[in-house]
Amino acid sequence: MVTTLSVKTGRQGLFEFTSQLDTIVSGSGINNGLCSLLIQHTSASLTIQENADPSAKVDLENWMNRLVQENDPLYTHTLEGEDDMPAHIKAALTSTTLSIPIMNGRLALGTWQGVYCWEHRHHAGHRQIVVHIGS
Amino acid sequence: MVTTLSVKTGRQGLFEFTSQLDTIVSGSGINNGLCSLLIQHTSASLTIQENADPSAKVDLENWMNRLVQENDPLYTHTLEGEDDMPAHIKAALTSTTLSIPIMNGRLALGTWQGVYCWEHRHHAGHRQIVVHIGS
Amino acid sequence: MVTTLSVKTGRQGLFEFTSQLDTIVSGSGINNGLCSLLIQHTSASLTIQENADPSAKVDLENWMNRLVQENDPLYTHTLEGEDDMPAHIKAALTSTTLSIPIMNGRLALGTWQGVYCWEHRHHAGHRQIVVHIGS
Questions:
Q1: For C43, which of B38, B129, C54, C87 could close a Cys bridge (C-beta 3.0–4.6 Å)?
Q2: Residue C13 to residue C58: CA distance in whole angstroms
Q3: How far is A39 from chain C (nearest CA, A)?
Q4: Distance from first CA to last CA of chain B, Å, rounded?
Q5: Which SUPFAM superfamilies match (chains A, B, C) (predicted)?
Q6: Identity of the residue in B2, B89, B92 whose CB atom sits nearest the CB atom of A101
Q7: Which CATH number fits the domain that encloses residue A108?
Q8: pTM
Q9: Number of structural domains found in chain C
């Protein structure tokens, strides 16, 4: 089964969509299987991270923004805005696809894990994610 | 088929578990298929790396420790220990899920490739990995 | 179905192989499914990136070369050449495996996405990629 979901972002940061994904997995009727994700963009990415303490998320965003800076004189790809090239680099350093096993009808995530869309641009609206569920 | 395996770590570093995985793949009876992995933690990760010369592993660990330092004044997420926030960042920069094709009943890894659990904390004991095998 | 493909590289950089992959997907006859990839090397990697403006690719390569430098005094793994240890680090920071959903008989990539082999060595010739296609 293949379907798509949309995550509202709107600003830089990590946006959790675990519950949207849970709903799709439940609806599939698959008991033991695999849920694979592709984000259809190169200036946003996917990550599985701690969803307990929001401070971890904030530090992750700030650390990445310090590593991959805007207005770096190295960049030649500047026509699409000062946040565009850093966004491509951050996407390359994180994940564009993920594969999460399904066990007993649920995503087999750890206790503190959530699935996130990591928005790397300042003003993007929605991001499309393709979801494949197989047995 | 979905199962779990546990990797003993205990200290920071790369811990190979290719042979544990080989045993699961052999036992599955799948000849051509896909073996997908999820580590159920956000302060340890997965990587496929060279398993021939141990010096590559050591350099990889040291390089990553220099890039993502403890006690960085940027961190606000500090209650769980000085190695916790760096661990989340390292997990985001490497992989939480992997998908390895199975060919002729074996993981289709390259000659020098091994599958590793990358422990990012100083004193974690065991890490749980969920394994899905499909055809 | 499991098969392999070979990407000619020869120098550092991003080498697109989306059309080779499209041909394999079309030939499989799978309408809705999953295409999973493993690169059988630890000094080259996989990434999904923008394939519209070549300047994004160039900046990505240059940024990564600045982050992960040759002849770093930290390295002890130096016998295989000055580009070898940086290549392993770059592989760990990007992806060794990818999973791309297939929708209506085609890879469900976004409009601007291409699939690339990222060669991290100066003189490697060809890189082998294992492709699994399932339903």
A1: C87
A2: 8
A3: 8
A4: 10
A5: YjbQ-like
A6: B2
A7: 2.60.120.460
A8: 0.98
A9: 1
Element (H, E) at A69: none
B20-27 CB contacts, 8 Å cutoff, 24+ apart: B21/B107, B21/B115, B21/B131, B22/B106, B22/B107, B24/B131, B24/B133, B25/B102, B25/B105, B25/B106, B25/B107, B25/B133, B26/B105, B26/B106
Q: Which residue of A has its CA nearest to C92?
A: A93
- Tokens 């403890």 — which residue? B70
Q: Which residues contact residue A116 at a Cβ distance below 8 angstroms, ignoring those fewer than 6 apart?
A: A14, A15, A16, A17, A46, A47, A48, A49
Distance from CA of C94 to the nearest CA of B (A): 7
C63 contacts A72? CB cut-off 8 A: yes
DSSP category for residue B44 = E
- Find chains touching chain A: ≥3 CB pairs under 8 Å: B, C
Chain A residues touching residue C117 (CB < 8 angstroms): none
- Choose among C59, C103, C134: nearest Cβ to A77: C59
B2-60 tens-digit pLDDT? 999 999 999 999 999 999 999 999 999 999 999 999 999 999 999 999 998 899 999 99
pLDDT tens-digit readout, B77-127: 999 999 999 999 999 999 999 999 999 999 999 999 999 999 999 998 999
Q: Inspect the interface and report whether the beta carbons of A110 and B77 lie closer than 8 Å.
A: no
Supply the range of the domain harboring residue C92. Answer: 2-134
Local structure of residue C98 (DSSP, 8 states): E
Side chain identity at C113, as an amino acid letter?
Q
